[in-house]
């Protein structure tokens, strides 16, 4: 491999949210990676730093061209440049959309278990959460379309946040599934916000399907959130894009993001994104292969060493969803035990919805040596947890 993902990087002295933990704690929770980003991106940021002036920036044509070219080449959808709006992040976009596209006390539908910050963006902005739980069977998830339609048909439901690929379960929704979601949302006048931030982190040879690519109905009734931040480990740059083809929705989104002052780039946001989408492909290809090997390692380790735990089948993201129901129905208790006794910091499943109560989320975007240590701590913690439950 041209790039090394085995390099150990000390992040404890860098004001890192993930690594702001005691020295004995190994954090494998929040979704950022423990790898340096692509050297080509670092070089672009170095040049920007050496310029030395960090005044107000603008959104460039180069930024729009880089995004359009990337999605056409890698995801087989042609964006028009005037569909794109810069935003400082997907979460600020979600919160702005809830404020702009709903009235107080209306409902926003989400499919649980799902990214926990969706709940915050809904509730904190005056709306109510409407959950349509996914169906879990044989360690895989599917959609209960009867339940979904019933909740979309509620006149109080005016917005749906789709997670595609789906965090935390790592599922890539197929074209037929997305088309059905799009048709139902159109019938019941529910606007779709598709969070596609993990789209470039599919397993090798796997491709995600952009919601807006499925049909004219899906495209015209949707707002798509994309970013280089997850795939290239650039979350701290505060850079993302919103894609809206419908002129009416586009105006709404543009006004919302500008009113909320989250539509202006910082000094690095544009250069970092352009470098990622124009020069980062070789690095990303090797990253995906490395993550896939990490995923296979965890699968084999769990099967051999922790048979009480089941790994949910996934095709995307570097986040693994672990079924702990044979060990405990309360993963919050398990995660607390692992943190206190083994210094292993995982995400307990109930924060992704009540249906995630017996699951934990594991971040495997780290060097193999770190992952091996984490799995050893996990194994020992599960053994001791099980023994303590019998006392």
Q: Give, in order, the helices and strands.
A: EHHEHEHEEEHEHEHEHEHHHEEHEEEH
**Major beta sheet, strand line-up:** 2-10-9-8-7-3-4
Terminal Cα separation, in Å? 49 Å
Number of self-contained structural domains: 2
Contiguous runs where pLDDT drops below 50 for at least 5 residues: none
CATH class membership of the largest domain: Alpha Beta
Strand content: 5-15%
CATH homologous superfamily heading of the largest domain: Type I PLP-dependent aspartate aminotransferase-like (Major domain)
SSE inventory with pairings:
Layout: E1 26-27, H1 39-51, H2 61-75, E2 84-87, H3 90-101, E3 107-110, H4 117-123, E4 128-131, E5 135-137, E6 140-142, H5 145-152, E7 157-163, H6 175-187, E8 191-195, H7 216-220, E9 222-226, H8 229-232, E10 240-243, H9 247-259, H10 269-279, H11 281-305, E11 310-311, E12 319-323, H12 331-342, E13 344-345, E14 347-348, E15 359-363, H13 368-390
Parallel strand pairs: 1-13, 3-4, 3-7, 7-8, 8-9
Antiparallel strand pairs: 2-10, 5-6, 9-10, 11-12, 12-15, 14-15
Helix pairs in contact: 1-10, 2-10, 3-4, 3-9, 11-13, 12-13
Task: Please tag this protein with its features.
alpha/beta, Aspartate Aminotransferase, domain 1, 2 domains, Aspartate Aminotransferase, domain 2, globular, four-stranded antiparallel beta sheet
Explain what the structure shows.
- With 391 residues, the chain is α/β, with parallel strands linked by helices.
- The protein has 2 domains: 122 residues, Aspartate Aminotransferase, domain 1; 239 residues, Aspartate Aminotransferase, domain 2, CATH 3.40.640.10.
- Strand 8, helix 7 and strand 9 form a beta-alpha-beta unit.
